[in-house]
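Following up on my earlier thread - several people asked me to post the actual chain instead of describing it. Fair enough. Here it is, all 230 residues.
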Amino acid sequence: MYLRITQRQNRDGSTVAYYALAESVWNPDVKRREARVVHSFGRADQLDRAALERLVKSINRVLDGDTGAAAGGSPRDIPEIEIERVFELGVVLAARTMWEELGIGPAIRACAERANLTAPHETALFAMAANRLDDPLSKLACAERWLPDTAWLPDAAGLAVDQCYRALDFLAVWAEQIERDVFLKAADLFRLDVDLVFYALSNQVKCFAASFHNWFTNRSTSLAIARAAA
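Reply from S.P.:
Thanks for posting it. Predicted structure:
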């Protein structure tokens, strides 16, 4: 098949070209090859160029694929892609969203600004919190393994373990103010109009069970001592 171009001359002397998809077939009656039009694209000056480009792309997809290679075509050379590093973003992205929506990040940044501190305390605290959600490690492992090799956190690039400890010192000083700001921010969550509320009671149950166990153990010991005395 090939793209056939024919021309016709009008009475005014102008020439009009026509495009068509044609193929050469053998005519046994006249014993010669003739052009047979498979599809006519119409006049050249009224050509639907977008439709022709879609046809070309469709043909190229076949030629660049396995079908074209098996048919003798030459697939387009694709350069090899070398993957240097792969990072995780899901946990960090979810943690960052909660960090901001609960007001933790703004509260820490406000306290750092109030103290005229420029050290990346908020970045270090967030990195340690996100690490706890993903793969809890020590502060040293968080700074030297999790941040450089696992998590996608460009803000914490080059963060050293010393900065993690200094961030914890900062948190110890400003913990009361940060907790207050976060509480006032999160208190609005209890005003939401909801149909169902879930309460996590596992810690309370464990504390109650431990208290009951201690009470029962002390009571049994007291009874044993009283009986022995009697």
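The helical segments are 49-64, 66-70, 90-101, 104-114, 121-134, 139-149, 161-186, 202-229. That should answer part of your original question.
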